[in-house]
Design a protein that fits this description.
binds flavin mononucleotide; single chain; binds 2-OXO-4-methylpentanoic acid; TIM Barrel; alpha/beta; about 375 residues
């Protein structure tokens, strides 16, 4: 059950009476700009940037603006339930932390800070393969918190199986397989700076500590880091997987499997046919295909086509409580949040991630109430108007 009227809002308003002063902006629009002042220019551009002209990033936001919420009155929404069941687990809200690699570029504590903040709120953190701390270190930081593992599916079955075994042993419950980044997009902001975080060794903690990966190297990474980095980059970019290869993952993972990066209805159907447990309708926050369909535009036809046969998650462009309600109304079971909490991490580490996420959860709770809903399950197509 949610705190009455957005607990974090109360804490902030009651600052003068012993509450909380927000450590930085609560405004989702100003958040990105404020982060520019606290992280390095190349890290900022890497996080904030998108593919090509940035058209898909813009389209992601414009799609949210085309849908409006239609509030209902006198519904007695004083007591609300923001909880949601996702792949069999009950979450305090239909919100997960999207997989984000190389977090040490914005804060030295990187994924450890994020894991602690997510665990404190009971929200699942999806750990990226390209994390700057190992699978095991992050599991330690997240304690009893829910944790999922995101796979960049390497072109080597031993390395892949080894990483899945490690993730399972470290208590990650759900596997998210990202399909849309089998090679890196044309990203002008990073190209202009000739900046690729891996080449500084960032984001390689998990592969560099992996016995199967190390067995492929002539010299240990400690003795020849450039060769190890190049070997990893060659394994996880330019991969040639197809739908026929999914059974390999099923053989090596006994929990739920979710495919991330689905944008076409037929791919969603194929995921159902392949026996997958979930999909994330996502265009990677506009970071991969410039000119790709806005993620929110892709959602309704996919949700209609697959119905209840697979769990539909959503990301790309979610910034506010209202955005979450819109995605749920259009068929998503839950949303993944990317850049906003990364900016929070850059500002203030664990506290910064918590600040951003608590703000989002309070905004969701208040938006749910003011639109006349008492629970997440009441949000549906009738809550929306397309303008
Ligand atoms: C800096 C950064 C790094 C990312 N790294 C990964 C990653 O390692 N694996 C992955 O599947 N997605 C990655 N993503 C994509 C996110 O998981 C998510 O799809 C996207 O950020 C959602 O859009 P939003 O930022 O507009 O919320 C990354 C996104 C950003 C901004
Ligand atoms: C390729 C990555 C390691 C990170 C990523 O997915 C991204 O930068 O969008």
């Amino acid at each position: 059950m949610a705190e009455r009227f957005g607990g974090y809002q109360n804490e902030i308003y009651l600052h003068g009476l012993g509450g909380t002063k927000p450590p930085f902006t609560t405004d989702p629009v100003r958040l990105a700009e404020s982060a520019r002042e606290v992280v390095s220019p190349e890290a900022y551009d890497y996080v904030a940037g998108g593919a090509g002209s940035g058209a898909t990033m813009v389209a992601n936001r414009a799609a949210f603006d085309r849908w409006k919420l239609v509030p209902r009155m006198l519904t007695d929404a004083t007591a609300r339930d923001t909880s949601a069941t996702v792949l069999g687990a009950t979450l305090p809200a239909p919100v997960l932390l999207a997989p984000v690699g190389v977090q040490s570029i914005v804060h030295q504590d990187g994924e450890l800070a994020t894991a602690r903040a997510a665990a404190a709120l009971g929200l699942p953190m999806i750990l990226s393969t390209a994390s700057s701390r190992t699978i095991e270190e992050v599991a330690g930081a997240s304690g009893d918190g829910p944790r999922w593992f995101q796979l960049y599916w390497p072109n080597d079955s031993d390395v892949c199986a080894s990483m899945l075994t490690r993730a399972k042993a470290a208590g990650y419950s759900t596997l998210v397989v990202t399909l849309d980044t089998w090679t890196l997009a044309w990203r002008p902001r990073d190209l202009d700076r000739a900046y690729l975080p891996f080449l500084k060794g960032e984001g390689l903690a998990t592969p560099l500590s992996d016995p199967a990966f190390r067995a492929l190297l002539e010299k240990a990474p400690e003795d020849d880091m450039p060769s190890a980095i190049l070997r990893w980059v060659s394994l996880f970019t330019g991969t040639d997987h197809s739908w026929e290869h999914l059974p390999f993952l099923r053989e090596h993972w006994d929990g739920p499997i979710v495919l991330k990066g689905i944008q076409h209805v037929d791919d969603a159907r194929r995921a159902v046919d392949a026996g997958m447990d979930g999909i994330v309708v996502s265009n990677h926050g506009g970071r991969q295909v410039d000119g790709a369909i806005a993620s929110l535009e892709a959602l309704p036809p996919i949700a209609n086509a697959v119905g209840d046969r697979i769990e539909v998650l959503f990301d790309s462009g979610v910034r506010t409580g209202a955005d979450i309600l819109k995605a749920l109304a259009l068929g998503a079971k839950a949303v993944l949040i990317g850049r906003p909490w990364v900016y929070g991490l850059g500002h203030a580490g664990e506290d910064g991630v918590r600040h951003v996420l608590r703000g989002l959860l309070a905004d969701l709770d208040i938006s749910l109430a003011l639109t006349g809903h008492r629970s997440i399950s009441e949000v549906g197509p009738e809550s929306l108007h397309r303008s």
